[in-house]
Q: What sequence folds into this?
């Protein structure tokens, strides 16, 4: 079962707006508050999907308030307590805005669309980005397999994978690393 | 004594300094007449610039300023349909023949002159524009649908500068028309207010860094080129950066006038502008103009 939050429903609930546009900082702060309310009933351990498919316009200020601040408050938390987010239903324009606001705060997030390879938005180190590409292509991989694929020393590979796990975009399960997805 | 500010025959970003100089000289006049009787055309930035002048004159106190409407009936009809007189009547005692028409945008008026004071106004403006503009921007300007999506973002960020920083209300207007020297249609977003301006907004956090150089020009450079904000949160200051990214992609132009300075990021197609001008006649608040040209069709 997936914990999915439709952003336009949260917008309507939080702001009472008939619009489909996520614009302005004050709206973003209210929508983030609405998401946090919705998180109280979520299934523990599963990633929370933020669904943008009914959103029309997304501006940088609102993207920062909704997505970047949500990650700051939840995804990077006490060990084992973090809430992980996956994002869906983005247009290319939305993806660019979110990518930019995440880079500004050195955060990262997985965007996935049905039938497509998950992709990383935001900023990670070049080694972590390369490790992500291997994981996204293969579905899962062990540490040695990734080191071999990237021709990286073991220590650097470990650091890259630790960074991806700490960013909340990769999971470690039974010795294998998996991209965080909702599927 | 009534001081007369003559509005240039063509009021756009090039002639605005002439208007601003006359406005600055009216500083201690008891009553001001803004005389637009000979004006034959005003850009959206010109129209909302007139409203900013009215807003600043009203804020000074004293008698309500006067405005003489253009003598040319076609011009007054156009200004009325663009929504100008509906707001001018709140600020000026308007003289001359003003047609009683409701703002009813023509095809080239994507958004009539619209006030922006609070965040809800930004929602309304973005919602209206997205509904009206997408088809026009793609059919008449041959813009990629992706450009029209970014259009709402840029409009929103430009309007939020008023809500977050101006300390007063402002206006926005969006039109398409033929740009003066390139033979191509453009879409123009004009956003302006008579508020505190960039220098005062950034003074508390940036003035020390610039020392003696601090002024309107350095404040504009800090905001537009360096992306600084008055807030210490590193996530702030993204609005103008987002607008710049959108304009870079679609070969657009941005200019911002605030106080006594004006800054612009000038694309190749614009041959007639300067990146930074300082020592201009003082004008209150901030005036932002975004221009995106139609896609140039390749010769076959």
A:
């Amino acid at each position: 079962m997936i914990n999915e939050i439709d952003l336009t429903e949260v917008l309507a609930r939080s702001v009472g707006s008939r619009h489909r546009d996520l614009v302005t900082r004050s709206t973003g702060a209210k929508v983030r508050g609405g998401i946090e309310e919705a998180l109280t009933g979520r299934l523990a351990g599963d990633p929370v999907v933020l669904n943008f498919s009914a959103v029309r316009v997304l501006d940088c200020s609102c993207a920062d308030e909704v997505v970047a601040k949500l990650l700051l408050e939840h995804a990077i938390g006490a060990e084992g307590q973090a809430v992980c987010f996956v994002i869906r239903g983005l247009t290319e324009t939305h993806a660019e805005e979110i990518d930019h606001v995440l880079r500004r705060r050195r955060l990262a997030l997985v965007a996935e669309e049905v039938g497509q390879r998950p992709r990383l938005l935001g900023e990670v180190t070049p080694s972590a980005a390369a490790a992500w590409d291997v994981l996204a292509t293969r579905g899962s991989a062990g540490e040695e397999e990734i080191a071999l694929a990237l021709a990286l020393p073991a220590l650097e590979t470990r650091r890259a994978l630790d960074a991806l796990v700490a960013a909340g975009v990769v999971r470690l399960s039974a010795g294998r690393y998996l991209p965080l997805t909702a599927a | 004594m009534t001081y007369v500010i003559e509005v240039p025959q063509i009021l756009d970003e090039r002639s605005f300094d002439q208007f601003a100089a006359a406005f600055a000289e009216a500083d201690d006049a008891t009553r001001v007449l803004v005389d637009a009787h000979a004006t034959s055309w005003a850009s959206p930035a010109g129209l909302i610039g007139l409203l900013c002048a009215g807003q600043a004159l009203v804020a000074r106190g004293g008698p309500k300023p006067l405005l003489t409407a253009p003598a040319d009936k076609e011009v007054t009809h156009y200004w009325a349909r663009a929504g100008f007189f509906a707001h001018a009547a709140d600020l000026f005692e308007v003289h001359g023949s003003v047609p009683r028409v409701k703002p009813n945008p023509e095809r080239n008026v994507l958004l009539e002159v619209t006030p922006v004071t609070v965040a809800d106004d930004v929602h309304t403006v973005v919602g209206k524009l997205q509904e009206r503009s997408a088809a026009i921007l793609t059919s008449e300007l041959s813009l990629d649908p992706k450009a029209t999506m970014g259009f709402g973002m840029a409009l929103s960020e430009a309007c939020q500068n008023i809500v977050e920083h101006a300390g007063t209300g402002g206006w926005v207007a969006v039109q398409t028309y033929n740009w003066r020297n390139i033979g191509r249609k453009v879409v123009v977003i004009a956003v302006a207010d008579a508020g505190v301006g960039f220098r005062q907004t950034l003074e508390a956090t940036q003035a020390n860094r610039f020392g003696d150089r601090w002024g309107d020009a350095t404040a504009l450079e800090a905001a537009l080129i360096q992306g600084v904000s008055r807030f210490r949160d590193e996530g702030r200051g993204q609005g103008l950066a987002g607008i710049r990214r959108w304009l870079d992609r679609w070969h657009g132009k941005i200019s911002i006038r605030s106080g006594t300075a004006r800054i612009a990021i000038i694309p190749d197609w614009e041959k007639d502008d300067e990146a930074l001008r300082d020592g201009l006649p003082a004008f209150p608040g901030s005036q932002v103009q975004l221009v995106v040209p139609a896609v140039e069709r390749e010769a076959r």
